[in-house]
Write a structure and sequence with these properties.
The chain is α+β, with helices and mostly antiparallel strands and 478 residues long. It has eleven helices and 30 strands. The strands form eight sheets. It has a ten-stranded mixed sheet. Strands 13-14-15-20-17-18 form a six-stranded antiparallel sheet. It has a four-stranded parallel sheet with strand order 6-7-8-9, covered by helices on one side.
Amino acid sequence: MVGNFMPYQINNDTQQQGDLSTYDLPFIPAFKYSGALDNMTISLNATLGSPNRYSTLYVRNGMAGWAIKRTYNVIQQNILKNNTRTLLFSDASYAGSGSYSAALLTDQYRSWSDMSNIINQVIGLSMYGFSATMVDTCGSLGPMDEDLCARWTQLATFMPMVRNYFNETYMDPASGQRLKTDNSEPWNAQKDKLKLAYAALGERLKLSRYIYSQMYMTHTNGGSLSHPLFFDFPTDDGSFTDAAISQTFMLGDAVKVSPVLANLSQGDTYQAYFPPGRWVSINDPSQIIDATNGGINATLTADSATVNIHQKSGSVLPYLYNNMNLRTTRDIETNLATAIRIVRDPWNKQASGDIMIDDGISPNLFSPDYFNIYQWQAFDKNFTHYNVRISSANTINFQLINGDLDYKPAANMMYQYLDKIEIHDAQDLENVDFACGINRGFSFINMTAYFNNGTKTLTIKPVDSNVTFDQLNIVKFG
């Protein structure tokens, strides 16, 4: 996507306050490299409207955010006609508008510092209720730096939403001249950088069911998808340090992202903070960060093939093993069954997590707005929300939390089927050789259990590949 904002004739790059009447404002905010706030648009007090209805730009822009709610309400009133969900984005946002639209973070200069600042900006917006914040990968202003773009892609793919966008021109901070912005599409990059970008996008597809479920949780229960470590570890002093806040973050309640934020080569190392617990690498379960005695700064390796993402102990993670190298969400949904990855708490050997099953399109009753408008009569509960919990008694429970137990997506939607259950960091389960499931009619589901000594993982897999989540009640192993 290419943007094209340029200084207007009444507002050129060299203009200063007082040069023309259009700058007749008591104060104009400015930025280090961009100049005055309005140097990429019409002057803030430019007059708009017809002869009978005038308004200044700063008044018009100040009210623009309120248009989000009106648009949202119109769409909601027509939801029966459209029979599909909607998703709104707005550049104009304010505290509370996250109830109606997602936010955009755009116009970032292509620099390592601007890339790092994305973390704080997304986390900040999430605290104001914007669970879905879209960021521009590779930045949108400035000359292309392929190393920067590759690492930026790695970071952005673990944000709530991401797009590739750049503005057609930018102001060069060194010369003060407006220059043409280089393209930033990943396919224009050299082969090794392109490989890194594709690998990052592939990791996101594997986590798509998890991210979707976590978005549902934040929508219904509040909270934020991307959030600082101290949200999950409020008693850990190390989670409140600058490095812990600005260099790493949680994606939902189970995944910690530790991006590369400097120009590092393959094999270089860097530091990342890990709060108390045991953190299992999602890409290599044999790699475990042991912080059971307190938070630590761990040494990680910068890799071009994978991103350093770790699963928190005490969590359950829906995961899609993309061994077929599928590249679209639809292909993922129609070809891959869902695996359940479990990392137990090191102290009590328990874990819990959530999975949301629906078709991703139809309106659902989990939105309070549908209740307010239609009094719960317009739609069936065409979704199911399960909590998956493992106890110390070698039992995995699948509990319906909300929705309709009889609901099933279309038969070709494979994410409703159980691929396997993996319990990682499970040295104490190496002698387990038996597992079975019990369905909701209290009949047995045949399953196998085997232990991998290399990764210390216990895998439980249904013999029948057609086991769906609505059938599962309990899984026992021993």
